[in-house]
Amino acid sequence: MAAKDPALGNIRILTIAQALGGAGPPIVISLGGIVGKTLASDPAFATIPVSLYNVGVAVGTLPAAYIMRRFGRRHGYVFGALIGIFGGLLAATAITIETFALFALATVLIGLFGAYIQSFRFAATDSVAAEHRATAISRVMVGGLAAAIIGPQVVIWTSDAIPGVPYAASFIGLSILAFLTLLLATRLKPVAAAAPTPASGGRPLSKIVRAPRFILAAATGVVSYALMAFIMTATPLAMVACGHSVGQATLGIQWHVLAMFGPSFFTGRLIARFGKERIAATGLALIAGCAVIALSGLAVANFWLALVLLGVGWNFGFIGATAMIADCHTPEERGKVQGLNDFLIFGSTATASFLAGALVHIDNGWSLMNWLVFPATLAVFLPLLAVGRRAARA
Question: Which of 277, 287, 350, 366 has a Cα at 20 to 30 A from 219?
């Protein structure tokens, strides 16, 4: 792409927007369970706000895809950022007046904003050739590396900024990040598609979802993301239950998110070298390795190393799955296929978060959760290896 190519400029804007808007989830993940435990009448409800954040992402994916298809990426992202601004302010208000239900509603709204953030990776592929899609996705995901620093640091710097109302300022900070994302969205330029888009809507969605290629791609994304959320949601609570501090849990999440996005500097090149399926399979193997480390002990080092492996595994699995999905549709089918894919991913992620909140509080719940990782990863790992080998031979 030429230096003045609007597509390249958009990728740069999306990368910065990912860094700012993508800092919201670490704030919700770090504080959602802690604030939930403070406000809820029953400690078993503590992780509901985090789970509802994922519900918001899942519920928001299809409407977000429609809005962006109808009004364009730029207008869609501005609208999504407005939701994020309101959601952060509502969360701060809920903490101030100590209302659990209002806080839970706020995390749903922040999740709706997250649905737009998640589509940045697809927006990067709108106008690039097929062979450059994985690299474009990786470039935008690099912004998550900065988000991994910004989000937890906002929590650390602002947790007690408002005397007597801990954590309220952290969600005001989230609103400020959403506002900066809005400003960036207004700078996106319209770009021509890499190939002319026919006027028809393409194949029926019912036909696309029956294709083995789509099934494997979607399953890879679902397993990678749902298992990541399953373990990550429970980890801060498990660490605190084991006698570790909230600060140690927050830093663990920061290392985890760094591991999620740090490999994006080279994931695209690895995919180009070894293939999408093999890199995604490697990601699932690393997620299984996370469970092995978690089952080996309850020291801070075990939790942190497990979170790092979980993050790298998610990166390989999710970016690999995203590149696989990009091969499953034509330009005119893009919106509905991407929207359905994200709905499946974040619907399963929300379910995994709810299960995590329930399981982590039972006897040996942390161990049970990690044992469940193995059959889930194996179910997708083997088909990925088979497809990867066929692709390599071809």
Answer: 366
